[in-house]
């Protein structure tokens, strides 16, 4: 089962945990499972058009992905990064 690394700004949804486990063979399935475990989580990562939000970056292993159909091998980490902006 993949390990998901959770950024600080989303830890309020995971009871403060910085990493969690989620079932799924794709990024989308993992995010659905995370939302089952932690209601509201998926909406903070995916927008109403079913796309990764502008301020979120998803990594499968060391590679960045935006396609929710991206396969996630069971022993691979998924890292969610919250992009920062400002001026």
Overview of the molecule:
The structure is a single chain. The protein has 87 residues and is an alpha+beta fold. It is 18% helix and 22% strand. It has a five-stranded mixed sheet with strand order 2-1-5-3-4, with no helix packed on it. β3 and β4 form a beta hairpin.
Q: How confident overall, as mean pLDDT?
A: 95
Class of secondary structure makeup: alpha+beta
**Silhouette:** globular
Strand content: 15-25%
Specify the number of helices: 2
What separation lies between the terminal Cα atoms? 39 Å
Listing every helix as H and every strand as E from the N terminus to the C terminus, the arrangement reads: EEHHEEE
Residue share in helix: 10-25%
Query: In this structure, how is the largest beta sheet organized?
Result: 5 strands, mixed
**Would you count the extended β strands for me?**
5
Identify low-pLDDT runs.
none
Give me the Rg, rounded.
12 Å
Instruction: State the strand order across the main sheet.
Output: 2-1-5-3-4
Brief summary of the model shown:
The protein has helices at 27-37, 41-45; strands spanning 3-5, 19-21, 56-60, 63-65, 78-82. Strand 3 (56-60) and strand 4 form a beta hairpin.
Protein topology:
Layout: E1 3-5, E2 19-21, H1 27-37, H2 41-45, E3 56-60, E4 63-65, E5 78-82
Parallel strand pairs: 1-5
Antiparallel strand pairs: 1-2, 3-4, 3-5
